[in-house]
Design goal:
The complex is a heterodimer of chains A (186) and B (247).
Chain A: E1 2-5, H1 13-47, H2 51-67, H3 69-72, H4 78-105, H5 119-129, H6 133-144, H7 149-156, H8 160-185
Helix pairs in contact in A: 1-2, 1-4, 1-6, 2-4, 4-7, 5-8, 6-8, 7-8
Chain B: H1 2-21, H2 27-34, H3 36-59, H4 67-70, H5 79-82, H6 112-126, H7 130-136, E1 137-143, H8 151-158, H9 164-171, E2 176-179, E3 185-189, H10 203-209, H11 215-222, E4 231-235, E5 240-244
Parallel strand pairs in B: 1-5
Antiparallel strand pairs in B: 2-3, 3-4, 4-5
Classes of the chains: A mainly alpha (186), B alpha+beta (247).
């Protein structure tokens, strides 16, 4: 058995330096994207009226991360940064889609439907979409994202107490529209 | 209030399930198709990418560098193959053993079949895509996991004792080759595993092992006489053959 060793790290120092840095950056981002995509999509689905809109929202958030990846990748928690972008853009996207919808409905197309959810889940998210922006964000991050209070506070840029307050007020508001369904089941 | 909470939890669970069922679309393709501005940016990036690859080639000597001992007869790995992405159909685990492990960069001068397999293993390990990882394992495949094959990777990960971070660290190191009697080759990470005695391992490769082991562990490993720590090998056909530790 003959053993030979190729020093892959020092070969072609100038050429590989550039390529390795570029490729490492891309692979690193792609791995991050693969790992976090579905968790982000879950949160987006809870905050937007449709699968395509949710996917667009996730793409927008990751595009923002990709543009700043040299910096974002150095953060202690890059996914918290992407979550923050995601929830902030969700509001503006819904506002934009709402305006588009109003314009479209003048000529008659049906109301866009929520993703392939059961009627119950569609109903829940429609009610959540009527909540104030910060309450929606807290609901999506807590229930779908399954984040801790500290993590939600970090993403929303507020105290844990404020998160609890948003969640409490949201549940109080939802008790009216959601409670009747629960009683029907009994 | 509990009913509201229950409703929200049920809706959230259904939402997460839907998110898991939807396929992950390749990042660049989506930005190209949905955003014209990003298409232009992506095109510009591709041009720069190609130029970085071509200019040094045009400027360099035609003889492969590295000397007779280090030179392989195959050309450098095209960059495109290095960025191969494994698209998962399963949800990645947030507590994966590869979490927080830096993803290795491309290794040039590997045969393309070997480079492709290495890149795919890296992408799958980094994404904690165990289905992809198991499918990439050659037949037969040897692991130190329960004395079994590739499925051992999955069971150990599920038990919280995964070594995918170790796998990524290995593939970031210098590789060596083992020449087989039938003319074949095995590409081995780390190169330290291809020396017959510990004393033959160059200092820079010992330093690389420091990314995986502490000083005390290295001391113990040296006592064995040759490197017998974690190592992985891919043969010249691109078959991923083993990921083992121990003698």
């Amino acid at each position: 058995m003959r053993v030979s060793v190729v020093n892959s790290i020092t070969d072609h120092p100038e050429r590989t330096r550039i390529e390795r840095r570029t490729v490492a950056r891309m692979i690193s981002f792609e791995a991050f994207y693969q790992r976090e995509y579905r968790a982000m999509l879950g949160i987006a689905l809870a905050m937007t009226p449709g699968t395509a809109a949710a996917e667009d929202l996730v793409q927008e958030a990751f595009i923002a991360a990709h543009r700043r990846w040299d910096r974002v990748s150095q953060y202690d928690n890059p996914k918290a940064w992407v979550r923050r972008v995601l929830i902030n853009r969700a509001t503006s996207m819904r506002r934009r889609l709402s305006a588009e919808f109003r314009a479209i409905t003048r000529v008659g197309p049906p109301e866009p439907t929520l993703p392939d959810f059961s009627a119950e889940t569609s109903g829940v998210w429609k009610e959540v979409h009527r909540l104030p922006r910060r309450q929606q964000q807290a609901i999506a991050l807590h229930y779908v994202g399954q984040l801790s209070m500290a993590e939600i506070a970090d993403v929303m840029g507020c105290s844990q107490g404020a998160v609890k307050s948003h969640l409490h007020r949201a549940r109080e508001t939802l008790r009216g529209p959601l409670a009747p369904w629960s009683e029907e089941e009994l | 209030m509990n009913k509201v909470d229950d409703r929200l939890h049920a809706a959230a669970e259904e939402t997460r399930q839907l998110a898991r069922q939807l396929s992950i679309t390749k990042f660049v393709e989506r930005t190209e198709t949905r955003h014209n501005g990003m298409l232009i940016l992506a095109s510009a990036f591709a041009v720069v990418f190609v130029l970085f690859g071509l200019i040094p080639l045009l400027m360099s000597d035609t003889n492969p560098p590295g000397g007779a001992e280090g030179a392989l007869s195959t050309p450098s790995t095209p960059l495109e193959t290095v960025t191969t992405i494994v698209t998962s159909t399963n949800a990645p685990e947030s507590s994966c053993s590869s979490a927080d492990t830096p993803v290795p960069a491309g290794t040039e001068r590997l045969p393309s079949a070997v480079a492709d397999t290495r890149d795919a293993v890296i992408a799958a390990a980094a994404a904690c895509d165990l289905d992809a990882l198991v499918s990439l394992a050659g037949e037969p495949f040897t692991t130190s996991f329960g004395g079994g094959g590739a499925e051992g990777l999955r069971s150990w990960e599920e038990q919280g004792q995964g070594e995918l971070g170790t796998l990524l660290r290995l593939l970031a190191m210098t590789y060596g080759t083992i020449e087989l009697e039938d003319g074949g080759q095995i590409f081995v990470w780390p190169a330290a595993a291809t020396y017959e005695s510990w004393e033959q391992i160059p200092d820079e490769q010992l330093a690389e092992l420091g990314t995986l082991y502490g000083d005390e562990e290295l001391e113990q490993l040296s006592g064995f006489g040759a490197y017998a720590g974690w190592r992985t090998g891919i043969n010249h056909d691109g078959n991923w053959m083993y990921f083992v530790a121990g003698d």
